[in-house]
Amino acid sequence: MMAAFDSFGRVARHPRQATTLEVAIASFEKGTGPTILPFGNGKSYGDTCHNDAGLLVPMRSRRAILGFDTDTGLLTAEAGATLEEVIAHAAPHGYFLPVTPGTRYVTLGGAIANDVHGKNHHLRGTFGCHVANLTLLRSDGITYTCSPRENSDLFEATIGGMGLTGLILSASLRLMKVGSLDVIEEITPFSGLESYFDLAEEADAKNEYAVAWIDQLSGSNRGVLLTGNHAGNGNFATEEKATRLSVPFEMPFSMLNGVSLSGFNFAYFHAKARKSGPHPSSYGNFFYPLDAVGNWNRLYGPKGLHQHQSVIPFEAARTAIPAMLEASRKAGQASFLTVLKRFGATPSPGVLSFPRPGYTLTMDFSNRGVATLNLLATLDRLTVEAGGRVNPYKDQRMSPETFAAGFPDWQALERHRDPRFLSDFWRRTALALSHHTPALAAE
Q1: Shortest CA distance to 396 belongs to which of 9, 6, 103?
Q2: Distance in angstroms (rounded) separating the CA atoms of residues 263 and 105
Q3: How confident is the model at residue 439, as a pLDDT?
Q4: Which of 175, 208, 179 is nearest to 90 (CA)?
Q5: Which of 166, 168, 279, 366 could form a disulfide with 109 if both were Cys (CB 3.0 to 4.6 A apart)?
Q6: Reported pTM
Q7: What's the alpha-carbon Rg for the chain, to the nearest Å?
């Protein structure tokens, strides 16, 4: 079957071949067939979720909640269940996700395959830190139960493994007991990055959640630091309708340019800065503000958007991050979402997880072709020179060299990759590198 299966960035848009899970399993039994790749809910920004030379296997049809221990918070679900569905099932019992990305619409399998992180990495680490076990179907036809104690090598390769080790069928996740879904939020404006860096470590020490928004277009790099902790008011009501607005059709051109974003940034900064003192926020507004606008990526126009996320070691951050923001301004590229937060020292069980101790900077850019690609290459260079890495799960154009510089242990995933599983990202990075790595080619 043919369908769109676009990534969220919508840069490479064309129909893609897909097959059902049942047909994929049948091909395993025959031992032949094209390469495949699981596809969750299409929230990855780049081409880690694409397999244009092979087939995609949509997983959303397998989304049942299989079990939930309300005493321990251990929830088991099929891989196609979204985080929204997990929240809806667990919240009435006083539980919430221990780690959540900026959208609730990713699948459980996708959250594991991308080893997603949230606003509390400094305390809870990555999503994979809370996965108790998972079941993995590989092309040898065997379903493996994987955990830190059983098939641990496959478990570690699958967390952050971008869907390349096999089909995650189900997983068990340790949820977090909370006093409410509501969050007590506090907003602290800052005049520039030096002020933010002075605030950030203490903010992490005192709060469950911490993240900063940066006015990337301002020469001062002003912004607001948002911190939060779960309230204790016992409110566990989930939102009946998370999406309140929607972009009904594709814009003929990007609505997010320097002029429109300058106005937005000015209004957003001053609106946030006026909120003094702790105040309650719904979990939707705090964790998932953009979920309230359906198809918001259409605002970037028909050419889509590129997201660049890097992590810079602590010791280099005060120099490298201002340089990256300045490079974006000099290139005349306006970032709609510019987010900065700290990663802690908790290691992920995944062999190819993105977070490491340091500051992570995320910027979104309308796709303006060569000009945008040149800027992204500059941001890559500044990241690598600072000893950092670029997030593969947000990328669709980094060079093999940039990938290898950030992930020198990439061969650990290649050794455990199922030979029938492949993505466009892995083809253009790891496989390109493997042609120049005789030791790997000989294995």
Answers
A1: 9
A2: 29
A3: 43
A4: 175
A5: 168
A6: 0.94
A7: 21
Inter-residue contact 49 to 434 (CB < 8 Å): no
Say if residues 413 and 161 touch (Cβ distance below 8 Å). yes
The H or E element spanning position 36 is: strand 36-39
DSSP 263-298: HHHHHHHHHHHT--S-EEE-HHHHH-GGGGEETGGG
What pLDDT shows up at residue 131? Answer: 98
Question: Which H or E run contains 228?
Answer: strand 223-230
The model's pLDDT over 393-426, given as tens digits with 9 standing for 90+, comes to 999 999 999 999 999 999 999 999 999 999 999 9
Region of residue 64 (phi > 0: left; psi between -120 and 50: alpha; otherwise: beta): beta
| Token representation of residue 411 | 């061969």
Q: Report how far residue 421's alpha carbon sits from residue 414's, in angstroms, rounded to the nearest whole number.
A: 11
Q: Please give the Cα distance from 94 to 246 (Å, whole number).
A: 31
For residues 225 and 196, is the Cβ–Cβ distance under 8 A?
Answer: yes
Residue 122's φ and ψ, nearest 5 degrees, are -60, -20
> Cα–Cα distances in Å, from 305 out to 199, 226, 232?
31, 25, 39
What own/partner pairs with CB < 8 Å and gap ≥ 24 does 369-373 have?
369/303, 371/331, 371/332, 371/333, 372/306, 372/333, 373/397
* 232 neighbors 141 (Cβ within 8 angstroms): no
Residue length of the chain: 443
How many of the other CB atoms lie within 10 Å of CB of 163? Answer: 32
- Chain-centroid distance of CA 63 in Å reads 20
What is d(CA 399, CA 15) in angstroms, rounded to the nearest whole number?
Answer: 25
91: left (phi over 0), alpha (psi -120 to 50) or beta: alpha
Alpha helices per DSSP H over 162-282: 193-206, 258-273
Our CA dihedral for 346, 352, 356, 361, rounded to 10 degrees, sits at -130
Task: Give the orientation angle of helix 314-330 with respect to helix 193-206, to 10 degrees.
Answer: 130
Please state, in angstroms and rounded to a whole number, the distance separating the CA atoms of residues 296 and 142: 40
In the predicted structure, residue 443 carries a pLDDT above the cut 50: no
User: In angstroms, rounded to a whole number, what is the distance separating the alpha carbons of residues 169 and 281?
Assistant: 35
